[in-house]
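job 3f2a | input accepted
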Amino acid sequence: MRKIIFAAAVATGALSLAACSQQTEKKTGEAMDSAAADAQANADSAGETVDSAATAAGDAVKGVADTAAKAATDAKNAAEADIQGESTTKAAAD
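job 3f2a | predicted structure (94 res):
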C-alpha cells in the first residue's frame, strides 16, 4: 500500500513538473519576444533621434554659412563703394 501511495505521489510530482516546465518555457518565450520588441522600439527611437539631430545640425550649419556669405558680400560691396566713391547700394547693383 505504501508503494502505491509513493508511486502515485511521484507520478503527480512528475506531471506537475512537466506542466510547470511547459509554462516556464511559454513564459520565457513571451519574455524574449517582449524584450525583442522593446529593443526594436528603442533602436527605432534612437534612429529617429539621430536623424533629428543630424537635420538640426545641418540646418544650423546652413544658417551659419548663409550668414557668412551675406557678411562677405556686404564687405565686398562696402569695399567697392569705398574705392569707387559710391553708395553700397550702387556697388551691390554693379
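job 3f2a | The CA atoms of residues 16 and 52 lie 53 Å apart.
job 3f2a | closed
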